[in-house]
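agent> fetching stored inputs for the adenosine-5'-triphosphate docking request
agent> found them:
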Amino acid sequence: MSRMQLDIVTPEKIVYSKEVEMIITRAANGDIGILPQHAPLVSPLKITAVRVKKDGEEEQIAVSGGFLEVRPDKVTILAQAAELPGEIDVERAERAKARAEERLANKEGDQIRAEMALRRALNRLEVAKTLKK
Ligand code: ATP
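agent> prediction call returned; pasting tokens
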């Protein structure tokens, strides 16, 4: 199967850099599946999992919003934060979720910021579940 290079980069580091067969993620306009030789595209990315397929296996990376750039042979994701399943501190994400839920329940503070924090925490918890033991 043909492949394309996928790089997921944050201000701090290169989180992921591999040749992959398929990428499934959530762009601003909806879910998108990318195969090699996809038409060039630039789009904002939601707080979402990036699902990557190669050699019959799937890996997930948690991405906290950013930008997606697709070229026929290369996909780059620039994200504010991104973590592999094994890098996610589940207890920290549970605490962030509880804090955000409390702010939303009490209508306390910036509600949009609390909603975004909740989405980041839920996304991390979902991706952490895919950790291969
Ligand atoms: P918190 O309130 O726990 O800091 P957050 O969603 O506000 O969560 P971010 O601002 O998205 O955190 O990320 C700040 C940095 O901390 C990034 O480098 C991110 O990768 C890392 N990070 C955040 N939450 C976790 C987590 N649960 N496990 C591992 N790294 C995390």
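agent> quick read of the result: Residues 86-132 form a domain with the Single alpha-helices involved in coiled-coils or other helix-helix interfaces fold (CATH 1.20.5).
agent> awaiting further instructions
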